[in-house]
Amino acid sequence: MSLARPTRTVEKATARRAGKFGAAATRTAIPAVTGSLYAARTKIQPQAVRGTFRRIKWALLAVTLVVYYALPFIRWDRGPGEPSQAVLLDLDRGRFHFFSIALWPQDVTYVMGLLILAALILFLMNAVAGRVWCGYLCPQTVWTDLFLAVERLIEGDRRERLKLDAAPWSMEKIALRTMKHSIWLLIAWWTGGAWVLYFADAPTLVVQLATFQAPAPAYVAILTLTATTYLLAGHMREQVCTYMCPWPRIQAALTDEHAYNILYRDARGEPRVSVKQAAALRAVGKPAGDCVDCFACVTACPAGIDIRDGLQMDCIQCGLCVDACDTVMGRLGRPAGLIGYDTEANRRSRAAGRGPVSRIVRPRTILYATLVAGIGGFMLYQLGARSFMGLSVLHDRNPLYVTLSDGSIRNGYTVRLSNKRPGERHYALAVEGLAGARVEVVGGAPGDLPVPSDATQEFRVLVFAAADARPDPSVQLTFHLTDASTGETARAQDTFKAPAP
Amino acid sequence: MADTANPGTPPAAPETTGHEWDGIAEYNNPLPRWWLYTLYATIVWSFGYWVAYPAWPLVSGYTGGVLGYSQRQTVLDEVDAVRRDRNARGQTQLAGASVAEIRADPALLRLALATGKAAFGDNCAACHGTSATGRTGYPNLQDDDWLWGGSPEEIERTIRYGARSGNGEAHVGDMPAFGRDGVLKRDEAEAVASYVLSLSGKPGVAGASLEKGAETFAGTCAACHGETAKGNPEMGAPNLTDPIWLYGSSPEQVVATVMNGRKGVMPAWEGRLDPATIKSLAVYVHGLGGGH
């Protein structure tokens, strides 16, 4: 599991074995299977801590949960006939509303861009300060923290919980467990309940849900999310990060010696000795580390690891071990920061007796930041320059042209107009490229083509060339669409076909 | 990163899985047992799934599953239900409105155009062509030349009752076989054919007298086609001065028309198509672009 185990450990192990069995034995020796490939999970009961990182985590937990639960209830007036919910994934009508932005299915590229941005921002965060996302912002971490807080409130801190786990079943244990799981299920249900509110008008859906008149998929979604929240945050916890999430592996491949990570400053901490021993050792001029081996950092860890083993894949870098250690150091009157955000380069530099090195600005952070700014800027520009009207023209496949009784030539086109704004709009269609061309619209007038709110409308458009115009067999036509009320325009190209002279 | 490992306490010999390749051994990091049980559970689940749902491909077909579920059939049923519902509502509206009312209501007009387009492909395209451009003997419905009138109402009437269809309300009026019936001789027919071709600037039969043709036209043809040869939609007599010729504009074809006559038949669709479809067809054909 541990990234910290260096490859040379294998060499060492082999060397030890060689010493035991002789050189010949190592050549053919296949290490024995020393344990099962599967193990029961050891339940982790983290100790409560106080400190800077705990406060940051409480604040972020409050902010993220409030955003999650409150966002669907924010109203946003888009005019009559339009949904008035600020954030709404309208699957029925195929619209994603985010405040003043409305995305159509063809705007799915923005979602793709957001995902690319999200990945790059993860890379950037990792290159600067490790697993910031995992430790503070990931829903898995936030909800696990919340469930842990409930557990602590009902069953007590680590020591009481361990005792309760070991205790035989009693009325009190049953009562405590029932209460804990009920509250967990309530939070889980609430989580699923808030999720569905993003897909329909929230106040309406709340009433429907309460009166059992909501559509069946809403209930199914709530039940599913209740189950997954309860399982993931209540029972699986750190296993989700260790066994299910790909990011720890990617992070391990992307980090470097200049990235800040939560590290144990072993140069200061080693060798680990008790306070008394340290005093004795120092008195005779022998080295003694600041780490008193109190295991406060281990018991505080929600991932169940020992940070003193170094950077590890299981570590979500939540900083709680920092708080735990700082508390102990404070009590002992030693400086804080035995565990803290540090870089591998710094550690080496200090070990070599040189000053601290900090290279937050380095090629990879510049690259990630440039990519984030570039792609983000491009998307913003695209969003700003996005057209709210659309025009597409399709020439009749057959007949290419029609000769009329007065000798004039007619071409037919299927024209599709889109209106991405709320409220009906009236467009004017004009054609350029054919002198003296006349435009007709079946069932409408070219100067006034109504398109309903947030919709597309198809029209059949006829273009006539007078008998004496004698156009070339194929003439380039430009269709101009104008919205007089906003001044917006759109254009499309097609051809005008005529018989060969 | 590797150097971060606690230098004070060297790690114990790591457990390995017992596999070794070229001296590289794999650490044994035991997976939680529930993960293994989840795998077993999914295997058990799959057996139930095979029984309940379509699963295994066979030589021709597949195992259907006891639930008889088919995603494709579900979609088809849903689409069908929507279509039936929409048709039922649309048909009622179309049946209750006149052609003029349909054309005045944008929503109804759209429905009629879509209905008409589908009905045209099913019923009319066999003669008039899939894009309504017709062919020799079958009028082009895209242009603005109409034998029996090109207003929406006139088109509706032609579709409903037909022309020379045997229906009591059908359009009647023949182009007689002037040659076969002995009314005109060959040279008179050639002269009158050359004359009408000259009205739209087309070459006639070599050597035929246009004056003689004009004389014959006034005496024999003008009754139906009119003094100025502009035709008469009351009788289905075509305009002979425009560049559109139903039976061809070569001198031979026009002479053949004069000699043998023409009796093109448009069937009556009343009784075969419901009124809503007929109205939709009229709106659609008129909307092709040539309607008056």
UniProtKB/TrEMBL annotation, chain A:
PROSITE patterns: 4FE4S_FER_1 (PS00198), 4FE4S_FER_2 (PS51379). It comes from the Bacteria. The keyword Mitochondrion does not apply. Residues 281-310 form the 4Fe-4S ferredoxin-type domain. Keywords: 4Fe-4S, Electron transport, Iron, Iron-sulfur, Membrane, Metal-binding, Transmembrane, Transmembrane helix, Transport. Pfam families: Fer4_18 (PF13746), Fer4_5 (PF12801), FixG_C (PF11614). The chain crosses the membrane at residues 58-76, 108-129, 183-200, 212-233, 366-384. The keyword Amino-acid biosynthesis does not apply. This is Cytochrome c oxidase accessory protein CcoG. It comes from Methylobacterium longum.
UniProtKB/TrEMBL annotation, chain B:
Its main location: membrane. InterPro entries: CcoP_N, CcoP_N_sf, Cyt_c-like_dom, Cyt_c-like_dom_sf, Cyt_C_IC, Cyt_c_oxidase_cbb3_su3, Cytochrome_c_Oxidase_Subunit. Keywords: Cell inner membrane, Cell membrane, Electron transport, Heme, Hydrogen ion transport, Ion transport, Iron, Membrane, Metal-binding, Oxidoreductase, Repeat, Respiratory chain, Transmembrane, Transmembrane helix, Transport. Binds 2 heme C groups per subunit. NCBIfam families: ccoP. Component of the cbb3-type cytochrome c oxidase at least composed of FixN, FixO, FixQ and FixP. This is Cbb3-type cytochrome c oxidase subunit.
